[in-house]
UniProtKB/TrEMBL annotation:
Signal peptide: none annotated. This is Protein TPLATE. SUPFAM superfamilies: ARM repeat (SSF48371). GO terms for biological process: endocytosis.
């Protein structure tokens, strides 16, 4: 009844005129609230406390009321409602240390054994907001009361105890204290044992809170991140880690041994609470299946040699994991998006455990992708994509191939600020690995899988149009090209050492798919990439050059590996069929890029492209009869060098023309010394450039230097 009267006074309080912010009006209000608090009328006290909370929420300073509240309400006999409001008010105020230590602690301590369970509940609920240095004394002295609260017949008290301990026990500061205080450690271990048992409590709210507590413990240990629960910034020491590892190992043992009961308990919970039961069950199953629970036991008791696998039979592990999967499977078709997502993510986690199956992953990913068009879940689109791309490697080949194009479309519709590059990198890396795997399978005489080559990523008309358009405003195409190229470079690196646990076993590169990892295998998909992304050199990207730079870097790397400067090799010189084919493809690509030079939009890219091609182009293989033909590759390169040297329009000068001219002059030096005809043509160009107004004093000197080198090489061809 008091709660009803208090809430009934709320609208009146809201309607009461707001005091002016002047100090006089505020002093009057505080004096009035203090008088009400000192009266022995419960209704006046609760109204005064509500008014103080209202002022506090409005950002006004009511810290003058702290002492009166502590002495008149908490330290004195008063109603349950007033005690709860007083605790709420004190939680919101900066408290002086002398008030905290003797007065507040003793009143909290005495309220724990208060006959009204609501008062005891509000007392235990205020533990997490106390400063760290007061906790050991309070928790040790209140051990019996906390244990009684966890076993209390009153649901509200059990719930408050579970909620309070679930935000207190996983904290960094408490784990550190337990590592140095054996008595507190003993109490905390007992409480954790009781918390895990409360997951089977008859009250839904208490069981859900206990599941949440377990989830929080596992997440704190798993992520090993600094706890944000109390705003503390403590770094985990070995002691704190051992403490948490012991709690987690005990909880995992309990969940695994009672998994069927816990599954049955979660099935009779209301649907909105069911979601919190998923993660603890899945995490425990995964830790047991992967054997990581033994690692936790070793961390908890470093010298213990008696630690052995408690679950002997791997068959039992597989059956247990399958039971949990079949328990979760029906919820993938739930109507509640957050539940579908939670179940999907956790099933992906189980698919990554030893004994996991691709069917589990595909069922989960299909369910998560159905959320894409759900209106009420649209803000989570980035999370959906991130979840799917991070688990692509768990699917079978056909499913991966069918997902690539769909995922590209999804990514294209995401905001540019969302982490698109990471998702693209995952997709491109997996696509290249699938391509490698398919090529390897064909070499072994298996049937080719359709749609596995990189080029099929660009089959979609919209992606193709985007790639071929010159002035598209979309950043997506630049991100796609850059990610593809970076993934090629990743494949070219030697493989990292293979790890065994969970997601760390995703090896970048072909070994993840069981291919023989040849040193040059990666160049085949890389050749596909440079061919399909060729239109990027013509793009006009408002001055951004990152994607095109990446592209040219990969092109130069391939030209260097296949030594294109020496022309296409023959079987007589010991080249294999594959090598001849790849070198011919690269030469054709170079010729195509030389033709594209005329249409390149920015002088910056033009000079970089001239550099990339002329360094690696086979000049000796050109037909001498076509020397006067404007379509001759060398003539096209030199006419574009002329264009860069004599380009004086405003856009060129603002986009750093000096650098472009430098690149072209160095290029002229290298080209002129490699080939006699190039030397003659470039000598004319450089003489003309030296005497023009386009050259400043530095470039004039540089031109003279290059001319001398070309002249020397022409006269002494053997000393080249």
């Amino acid at each position: 009844s008091q709660i009803c009267t208090t809430t009934a006074t709320l609208p009146q309080l809201r309607r009461s005129p707001e005091p002016k912010c002047g100090s006089g009006a505020m002093d009057l209000l505080i004096a009035q609230i203090t008088t009400d608090l000192r009266s022995s009328d419960a209704l006046r006290q609760s109204s005064a406390l509500l008014q103080a909370l209202q002022q506090c929420a409005a950002g006004r300073d009511v810290s003058a009321l702290a002492r009166t509240t502590a002495t008149e309400i908490l330290a004195a006999p008063s109603s349950a409602v007033c005690k709860r409001l007083a605790l709420d008010l004190l939680r919101a105020l900066p408290l002086p240390p002398d008030l905290l230590d003797p007065l507040l602690l003793s009143s909290l301590r005495s309220d724990l054994s208060f006959p009204d369970p609501d008062v005891a509940a509000s007392s235990i609920a205020s533990f997490p907001s106390l400063p760290s240095h007061l906790l050991p004394t309070l928790l040790s002295s209140a051990h019996a009361d906390i244990a009684a609260a966890l076993s209390s017949p009153a649901e509200s008290l059990r719930l408050a105890a579970v909620t309070s301990l679930s935000s207190l026990l996983p904290r960094d500061d408490l784990a550190l204290m337990c590592s140095t205080n054996p008595s507190l450690m003993g109490h905390a271990t007992t409480w954790w044992g009781r918390l895990t048992e409360l997951a089977l409590d008859s009250a839904d709210a208490v069981a859900a809170a206990a599941f949440e507590a377990l989830a929080r413990l596992f997440q704190e240990l798993d992520a090993r991140r600094m706890s944000r629960l109390a705003g503390d910034k403590l770094v985990d020491g070995e002691g704190a880690l051992a403490v948490r590892a012991q709690w987690a190992a005990d909880a995992i043992d309990f969940i695994w041994s009672r998994r069927n009961m816990l599954i049955a308990r979660s099935m009779v919970m209301p649907v909105e609470s069911f979601r919190v039961t998923v993660y603890p069950l899945v995490h425990a199953a995964k830790m047991v299946a992967s054997g990581a629970v033994n690692t936790l036991r070793q961390i908890a008791k470093p010298g213990d040699t008696t630690i052995a696998d408690t679950v002997e039979a791997s068959a039992e592990k597989l059956v247990g994991v399958s039971d949990i999967v079949s328990h979760l499977l029906p919820f993938l078709s739930s109507l509640e998006p957050p539940l579908v997502f939670e179940v999907g993510i956790n099933m992906l986690s189980l698919a990554d455990a030893p004994g996991g199956k691709p069917e589990w992953a595909s069922a989960a990913i299909i369910a998560i992708l159905t959320l894409w068009d759900r209106q009420e879940f649209s803000s989570m689109r980035e999370t959906i994509v991130r979840a799917v791309v991070a688990n692509l490697h768990l699917l079978d080949l056909g499913m991966q191939v069918s997902l690539f194009k769909r995922l590209l479309q999804m990514l294209k519709n995401l905001r540019a600020e969302s982490d698109r590059m990471h998702a693209l990198a995952c997709i491109c890396r997996t696509a290249l690995c699938v391509d490698l795997f398919a090529k390897e399978s064909v070499r072994r005489g298996q049937k080719p899988v359709p749609g596995t080559d990189v080029i099929s990523l660009f089959e979609d008309a919209r992606v193709k149009d985007d790639l071929n358009s010159i002035t598209s405003k979309s950043l997506f195409r630049e991100e796609l090209v850059a990610s593809l190229v970076e993934s090629c470079f990743q494949l070219s690196l030697p493989l990292p050492e293979q790890k065994n646990s969970g997601t760390e076993s995703r090896v970048i590169g072909a070994l993840a798919y069981g291919t023989g990892y040849g040193a040059l295998n990666w160049t085949e998909p890389a050749l596909d990439v440079v061919e399909v992304c060729r239109p990027c050199v013509l793009w006009d990207c408002d001055g951004r050059t990152y994607a095109i730079d990446c592209y040219l870097k990969l092109l130069v790397r391939l030209c260097h590996i296949y030594d294109t400067r020496g022309g296409v090799k023959t079987i007589k010189t010991g080249a294999s069929q594959d090598q001849i084919l790849n070198e011919t493809r690269l030469r054709n690509l170079q010729l195509q890029l030389i033709r594209d030079l005329r249409e390149v939009h920015t002088s910056r890219i033009s000079s970089r492209l001239i550099w990339a091609i002329s360094e690696h182009f086979d000049l000796e293989g050109l037909d001498p009869l076509l020397a006067d033909d404007p379509e001759d590759p060398l003539n096209i390169i030199i006419s574009n060098m002329h264009k860069t040297l004599f380009n004086t329009d405003s856009s060129a000068t603002t986009s750093n023309r000096i650098q472009d001219v430098q690149a072209v002059l160095i290029c002229a030096q290298r080209l002129g010394t490699r080939n006699a005809r190039a030397g003659q043509l470039l000598s004319k160009e450089l003489e003309e450039f030296r005497s023009s107004t386009s050259a400043d004093s530095v470039t004039k000197h540089q031109s003279r230097y290059v001319l001398q080198i070309i002249k020397y090489v022409t006269n002494h061809p053997d000393n080249r």
